[in-house]
Amino acid sequence: MNELYHLFLRTERERNLYERARNLAERFQKRARWHDEHAEFPFENFDDLKEARFLSLTVPKSYGGEEISLYEFLLIQETIAQGDGATALSLGWHLGIIMNLAETKKWPLSVFERICREVVEKQILLNSAHSEEATGSPARGGKPETTAEHRSGRWVISGRKTFTSLAPALDYFIVSATIQETGEVGNFLIPKTAAGLKIEKTWDTLGMRATRSDDVILENVEVEEEALVEMLSLPKAKSHAQGWLLHIPACYLGIAIAARNEAIAFAKTYQPNSLSHPIAEVPEVQRKIAQMDIHLMAARHFMYSIADQWDRYPEKRAQMKEELAAVKYIATNTAVDVVDLAMRIVGGKSLFAENPLQRHYRDVRAGLHNPPADDITVSIVAGRALQ
Question: Which residues pair with 224 in a beta bridge?
Answer without folding.
Answer: 154
